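[step 3/7] inverse_fold.run input=structure_tokens len=186
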């Protein structure tokens, strides 16, 4: 499991990508208010699968542990539900005022599942849990955050700016590496 900070950071990235999709669909609203709501909902959705498990109506256990109403990584981490929520909210963009917020929330929830997927516990995408088995929980969180932000930035750039900035970055990297190598040789 990634930390709450990692889930929040990747949820913000997913919210920004969802906001770009909302703007591209022409559903951003006056002054892009609905796009901003989409982004905020994505940020909230990035941590949602974990806080939806907490039984807030019950008293806490000893030593600050939380009581859960269901086991961790069960129904709140179910991939089909999050994908269905994303799909149906996307279908209603522009026709229902609530669709933008739900779309952002679902995008954040899916990003949460993607950040939990590489560790051994895995995520129940369809019927049972599946894990990529790449690293243990709590390790390489900086990479998870970097990859989620990078992926969302490239996709948002493709949607809004036709990949202009991604291409500039791709052209910049070899020039930067070459300049750094020449500095090292002198």
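[step 3/7] decode complete -> sequence:
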């Amino acid at each position: 499991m990634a930390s709450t900070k990692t889930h929040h950071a990747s949820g913000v990235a997913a919210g920004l990508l969802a906001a770009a999709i909302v703007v591209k669909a022409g559903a951003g609203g006056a002054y892009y208010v609905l796009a901003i709501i989409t982004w905020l909902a994505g940020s909230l959705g990035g941590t949602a699968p974990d806080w939806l498990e907490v039984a807030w109506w019950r008293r806490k256990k000893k030593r600050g542990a939380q009581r859960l109403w269901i086991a961790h990584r069960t129904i709140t981490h179910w991939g089909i539900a999050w994908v269905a929520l994303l799909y149906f909210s996307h279908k209603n963009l522009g026709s229902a005022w609530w669709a933008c917020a739900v779309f952002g929330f679902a995008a954040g929830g899916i990003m949460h599942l993607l950040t939990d997927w590489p560790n051994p516990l895995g995520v129940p995408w369809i019927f049972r849990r599946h894990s990529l088995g790449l690293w243990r929980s709590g390790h390489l969180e900086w990479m998870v955050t970097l990859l989620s932000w990078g992926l969302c930035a490239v996709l948002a750039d493709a949607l809004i700016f036709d990949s202009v900035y991604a291409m500039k970055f791709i052209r910049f990297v070899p020039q930067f590496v070459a300049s750094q190598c020449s500095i090292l040789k002198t």
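[step 4/7] annotate
The chain has a mean pLDDT of 85.
The radius of gyration is 19 Å.
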